[in-house]
Design brief:
Elements lengths: L14 H27 L9 E6 L4 H11 L7 E7 L4 E7 L2 H4 L3 H5 L5 E7 L14 E5 L2 E8 L5 H10 L11 H9 L5 H9 L7 E6 L2 E6 L8 E5 L2 E5 L3 H4 L4 E5 L4 E5 L5 E5 L11 H7 L5 E2 L2 E2 H15 L6 E4 L5 H11 L7 E3 L12 H11 E3 L1 H4 L3 E6 L6 H12 L4 E6 L27 H8 L3 E4 L2 H7 L15 H4 L7 H7 L15
Parallel strand pairs: 16-19, 19-20, 20-21
Antiparallel strand pairs: 1-4, 1-10, 2-3, 2-4, 5-6, 6-7, 7-8, 8-12, 9-10, 9-11, 12-13, 14-15, 17-18
The structure holds 1-O-pyrophosphono-5-O-phosphono-alpha-D-ribofuranose, glutamine and magnesium ion (MG).
């Protein structure tokens, strides 16, 4: 079988060996950079939005899962894990660090026996970056087992946890995702699928799940469809993944999105049973930030090309906020498609004012501010020869804490730019997120309680403009935002949260247990 990842592979090796060697080559440069960064700022807690994957009914299930996770690495750089099932036993391997750091030897992949596997790359939202929180999480149930990989964040997990602990449940992690296992274990239903579905009835918040059970590979998406989950097919073997880029790497076909509130049960013979466990909605309300930042540009999310959507954001931005400048440059990587759209619409030349190191990942999803700052400084360097004496308009997808924009503006000025302007391809982010993007507090967000002029001054640019909310919806071809039934989960701009926020409300009333565990998180 020749698939995109191993066109240059060694034909004398088996599939697992080729997958391991591909991951090893790809990981070496990244690892070198991580070591360098660690020497500079101390040991980082590697962190990043999670990616999930699952496959059933094929040999090499674990190797395919590791490749899928590698394609989803942009969603979580903190930790990675794979669980497999061989018909009798579950096997798991979970590590802190990148997929390529830990799944690049055939021995590790080979120990994950069976024709079904799931995997997870982690960007932590609840629970520190320690091994006990690394997914897939596994639990023994009555007469069977279950392994689970969760993308998203639950908004009532602390409340449920406190209640379960009072009733004698023993938690093994501080991750919100363990709630699925605890509630599933307590259900009186006979089948694992029914037990799991019963757990969903008590859970609030965002989840896209891949779950491994002896009854099959299960996929589930929360009733709103906040986080993405797709179904694919590899020569009759069902695949579940966060994004289509994970199908491309293994040569699998896209079948369809999993619907909000839907559970699919995939069997080893390729059959797929679908259950709509929450009322069917006309459309999902996916998190708008997936399209703006999280998803890979070559992915297709809810039927739309992420690259094309981001280009349209740039075109719309050009219409709303033109700029008198000599050149347009992206803040790479996520600013690139919008900058292309902005350049094409305005006619200003598209140039690279910043050169991006290929050995450093995403910085926003790093867990600590000092790592984020060092990351931006080492990831981007100015293209002095191009920008000296020029008026530059920089395009980025978003400003969250302002770490990137502040550093980059300073960098371009030092490199001799005559003017530095900034255009942002989404509105100001003024509300925290509780669904899987780690911005749970108002205080961290640059745009909270600041005017555009105050932000401009703080960032240190000559002018600053953001895309309007209407412009965002129009660029995504959704017309004007329908306030009664918005097409997206867009609370970061509007404050309109699509689920209850039980834990947040309890915290505001000071009615919440804040110390989840008495075991030090370093253990
Ligand atoms: O205002 P901030 O808190 O800095 O966050 C916003 C920045 O972070 C993201 O980039 P990141 O480096 O994470 O990823 P990218 O390489 O995909 O652009 C995003 O694209 C913005 O550049
Ligand atoms: N970003 C995510 O999807 C995180 C998943 C889960 N809440 C965790 O912290 O591990
Ligand atoms: Mg960026």
């Amino acid at each position: 079988m020749t698939i995109p990842f191993d066109e240059t592979g060694d034909a004398s090796q088996n599939f697992t060996e080729r997958a391991a060697s591909f991951l090893k080559k790809d990981g070496a440069a990244f690892k070198a950079h991580r070591d360098e960064l660690e020497a500079l700022v101390g040991k980082p807690k590697l962190v990043e939005e999670c990616g999930v994957f699952g496959v059933i009914g094929t040999s090499d299930a674990a190797a395919l899962t590791a490749l899928g996770l590698h394609a989803l690495q942009h969603r979580g750089q903190e930790a990675a894990g794979v669980a497999s099932y061989d018909g009798k036993h579950f096997h798991t391997e979970r590590f802190l660090g990148l997929v390529s750091d830990n799944f690049s030897d055939a021995g590790t992949l080979g120990s994950l026996a069976g024709d079904a596997a799931i995997g997870h790359t982690r960007y932590s939202t609840q629970g520190d970056t320690v091994l006990r929180n690394v997914q897939p999480l596994y639990a023994d149930l009555d007469q069977t087992g279950i392994a689970i990989a969760h993308n998203g964040n639950l908004t009532n997990s602390k409340t449920l946890r406190a209640d379960l602990v009072r009733r004698g449940c023993i938690f093994q992690s501080t991750s919100d995702s363990e709630i699925f296992l605890q509630l599933t274990a307590r259900s009186q239903y006979l089948s694992v699928v029914d037990k799991l579905i019963e757990s969903f009835k008590q859970i609030e918040g965002a989840y896209a799940l891949t779950v491994l059970t002896p009854e099959g590979l299960i996929g589930a998406r929360d009733p709103v469809g906040i986080r993405p989950l797709i179904l694919g097919d590899l020569k009759g073997a069902p695949i579940l993944a966060s994004e289509t880029c994970a199908l491309d790497i293994i040569g699998a076909k896209f079948v369809r999105d999993i619907n909000p509130g839907e559970v699919v049960i995939c069997k080893a013979d390729g059959t797929i049973e679908s259950r709509q466990v929450f009322p069917k909605k006309d459309h999902a309300r996916p998190c708008i930030f997936e399209l703006i930042y999280f998803a890979k540009p070559n992915s297709v999310v809810d039927g739309q090309s992420v690259y094309e959507l981001r280009k349209r954001l740039g075109e719309r931005l050009a219409k709303e906020a033109p700029c008198d400048a000599d050149l347009v440059s992206p803040i790479p990587d996520s600013g690139v498609p919008a900058a292309i759209g902005y350049s094409q619409k305005t006619g200003l030349p598209y140039e690279m004012a910043l050169i991006r190191s290929h050995h450093i990942g995403r910085t926003f999803i790093e867990p600590e501010q000092k790592i984020r700052e060092a990351g931006v400084a080492r990831k981007h360097s100015p293209n002095r020869a191009l920008i000296e004496g020029k008026r530059v308009v920089l395009i980025d997808d978003s400003i969250v804490r302002g770490t990137t924009s502040r550093k980059i503006a300073e960098m371009l000025r030092h490199a001799g730019a005559k003017e530095v302007h900034m255009r942002i391809a989404c509105p100001p982010i003024i509300h925290p997120d509780f669904y899987g993007i780690n911005t749970p507090s108002h205080d961290e967000l640059l745009a909270v309680d600041r005017t555009i002029e105050e932000m401009r001054d703080l960032i240190g640019v000559d002018s600053l403009a953001f895309l309007s909310l209407d412009g965002l919806y129009k660029a995504f071809r959704k017309g004007k935002r329908d306030d009664d039934a918005p097409a997206f989960t867009d609370h970061c701009f509007t404050g309109d949260y699509p689920t209850k926020l039980t834990d947040r409300d309890a915290e505001q009333r000071n009615a919440m247990v804040t110390q989840l565990s008495f075991l030090a998180e370093t253990s």
